[in-house]
Each structure stands twice: as structure tokens, then as C-alpha cells.
Amino acid sequence: MAPKTGEMLHLRGNALNAGEPVALPLTQSSMYHLPGVTEGLATYGRVDNPTWEHLEHVLAHLEDAPCLIFPSGMGAISAALFATLKAGSRLLIPSDGYYVTRVLADQFLSGLGVSVTERPTTTFTEGGFDGFDVVFVESPSNPGLDMMDLPAIAASVRAAGGITVADNTTLTPLGQRPLDLGVDVVVASDTKAMGGHSDLLMGHVASRNAQIMEQVEDWRRVSGAIPGPYEAWLLHRGLETLDVRFDRMCTSALVLAERLAEHHAVKHIRYPGLPGDPSHTLAKAQTTRFGFLLSITLETEDKAETFINSCPMLRPATSFGGVHSSAERRARWGDDVDPAFIRLSVGCEPVEELWQSIETSLNVL
């Protein structure tokens, strides 16, 4: 079910008493006044915060599931995995997804007795899922933009006795709804499009499985992996414009992808919204938008660097999903891609102005 973003904007307002502020107050406190019995009261800043709680209420509305926030996307991924794995567990992850998830699995989880297996996104189902306790999926993959059949994988994993965890950072709940597709747990980096202004780090975990969410909350409380109240306040403010930003970004990305596909300087392009893209069929079936990320491969690494660093409407930066369009060569971080491969995140600039800037920079290569 698609989230009702108009209703989301008024979740707080419709519960206000006369004279209370419409804007969400920032509660910046580690201590609470606790005379006598403490049951049912906020107790300590590592456990309770009213700003967090309202943000989680809004995120739960978007995900249509209970939600908990974390100080980064990796904080959310770590919480989901530590809550569902133990020594002797078997974990399956994509070999071509976000590389820090692989680092977490290889350097830390494996050292705690978790058996880690990696498979490429395009052949992820080969070998089946028997014996895996947790199957971590990412669709579209970052940065390759390959997709998985989430309903089929979720059903197969459940039949084999495992659970699925999906990283939905690239599409947000407005572009894809893994929980509705049968996935057990969703994680996301809200640092990206959810916040949208490149000024905060945040992540969240959502699930309709109460036992898993209880474990995730316990992990947050005892590990201290908590967000700051100010960052929570910033994310709440960002969410109020998510619908309009995401619509603009996805619409512009399709326009740019169609034009980039015809440009002589572009050797290869990936965007799920293009009919000829390998991910197009799956994207049409399980997403509501094709997203704001695309990739282009130019002729050489030097030309890719020149393009990124000379285009006045592209910020040369890692991360994505902000109001400013940005680009980077992912090979510099060790991703298994062509040295001239560029991940391009489309922002909120007027599309014709943005295209003119991109086209002019490509034309002089």
C-alpha cells in the first residue's frame, strides 16, 4: 500500500492541543525529572527521547510498520544483523551491493562465528536458500543498479526457514515497498534521500515482526547506537518535503537517462527506467518509481574525472540523494566497476538547466 504522504504531514498536527507548536520541538536532554515511580515515563537519553519518538511515528507511517532510528545507515544495518544472527548462523549477502555491508560481514560478523556467503545480484537465487538463517538483499544494487525479484526471494527464504533483510536506501518507501513484497526487515540510510539535504547521518529499521523489532530495540539500548536529537529533528523536517523532492528527482532522472543514452561521449548507461535496461522488467513489476540514480561509463578514467570535476551542476562527492546533483567514480572506493564508471545522483535542479550543464561538459571531452 502506497504511503499517504499528505496524512503524514498532519500526523503531529491532528494530535495537538490548543496552543502547542505546529513545528516539532527539539528535546535536547539526557535527563528527565523522575520523582518516585518511573513506570511509563521517559528515563534516560540513551533510551527515550520525544523527538525520536515522533520521527519514528512518521517513519512507521511511511513504512506501514514499526520503525526504529539509528545514527547512520550502517548503524541500522548493523542493528538488523546483530539482532538476527548469532554464532553458527549462516548469512547470504550480495557481492556487488554496498561495500561497507560486506566489510561488516567479513571483518566482524565472520569473526564472531557467522558463516558469510556472497553471490552476485544477477545470479543471487542460484544455489537456493536452504540453510541460510538471514538473507540480506539490495535491489537495485548500489552502484550497479541490477535488481532482484524480491517477492520470489522472500517467499523462497521463508520456505527454507530463514528471514530476509532488504536495504531500500536507493528507492525509499515512496519508490519501493519491500515489506509489502514479503521481506521481513527493511533497513535504509536516511542520510540519503529521506533527509535530502546532505546535512545529517541517520538510518532506520522497520519490520512487522514484533520479536525482531524487540531485539533491534534491545541492541540499540545496550550498544548505545542512538541518534542525536538534533539529527532526528533535521530528518523529520526533511521528510516533510520527501514527496516533492523524490518526484522531481525521479522525473528528472528519466529525462536525463533518455538523453544520455543518445550522447556520443557515453559508452554505457544504466537506469532501470530505460526500456532496454536489464533491470527494467523487474523495476516495472515491483517499484512505483525508477529512482533518481543512474550510471554512465565514459571512454576513460581521465575523461570521467574531467566531466565530474568540471560540470558546474554536479558536486563531486560520495553519497547520494541530496537536493544537489552529485557524481563520483565508484572504482575509487574499490567497487568492481569500470574505472570510467560514474554513479550520478539526480537532484532537484530544473531539469533543462541541469541537462544543459551536463551536455556542455560532455561535449568538450
Structure, explained:
The structure is a single chain. 36% of the residues lie in helices and 15% in strands. The protein is α/β, with parallel strands linked by helices. The chain folds into 2 domains: 5-13 and 25-239, Aspartate Aminotransferase, domain 2, CATH 3.40.640.10; 242-363, Alpha-Beta Complex (Aspartate Aminotransferase, domain 1). Helix 3 packs across helix 4 (99-109).
Brief sketch in words of this structure:
With 365 residues, this protein is α/β, with parallel strands linked by helices. The protein has 12 helices and 12 strands.
Beta percentage is 5-15%
Alpha-beta content class: alpha/beta
Question: What is the helix fraction of residues, given as a range?
Answer: 25-40%
Total count of strands: 12
Q: What topology, given as strand order, has the largest sheet? A: 1-7-6-5-4-2-3
From the coordinates shown, what is the CATH architecture of the largest domain? 3-Layer(aba) Sandwich
The ordered H/E elements are HHEHEHEEHEHEEHHHEHEHEEEH
The CATH superfamily of the largest domain bears the name: Type I PLP-dependent aspartate aminotransferase-like (Major domain)
Q: Give the class-level CATH name of the largest domain.
A: Alpha Beta
Measured distance between first and last alpha carbons: 45 Å
Mind describing the biggest β-sheet? 7 strands, mixed
The number of distinct helices, counting runs of at least 4 residues, comes to 12
**Spatial extent as radius of gyration:** 21 Å
Return the domain count.
2
CATH fold description of the largest domain:
Aspartate Aminotransferase, domain 2
Poorly predicted parts:
none
Shape: globular
Mean pLDDT: 96
